[in-house]
Specification:
With 104 residues, the chain is α+β, with helices and mostly antiparallel strands. It contains three helices and three strands.
Length: 104
């Protein structure tokens, strides 16, 4: 993935937030969510993608320049033909929007 992501607690531990620094891109602030009793959703997703080496999941797409409505403060990428916001990034990586397949 190559992107540094730092998770931290806010509001006496009630909330969790993150900040990401993609390779060769400007650092940006991510979403803030309730910490709850379990792992926060974004942290759990990050761990799964990093452990499984998923390069085209949410975090991999962010690392490669995709933007999402839920991540404020970044210039939005234009949606791909399927309507997904991340598809502009997928096209740059030669990913087929309709199937999600990456040609070898």
């Amino acid at each position: 993935m190559g992107m540094q992501v730092v998770f931290y607690k806010v509001d006496n531990g009630r909330l969790c937030a993150w900040v990401a620094t993609p390779p060769k891109r400007k650092r940006f602030q991510g979403t803030t969510m309730a910490s709850g009793r379990d792992l926060p959703h974004d942290l759990a997703q990050f761990v799964v993608e990093a452990t499984l080496g998923l390069q085209h999941g949410f975090w991999g797409l962010l690392a490669n320049g995709a933007t999402f409505k839920s991540v404020v403060g970044r210039r939005r990428t234009q949606p791909g033909p399927c309507g997904w916001e991340c598809c502009a990034c997928w096209r740059r990586q030669s990913v087929d929007c309709s199937t999600g397949e990456v040609p070898c």
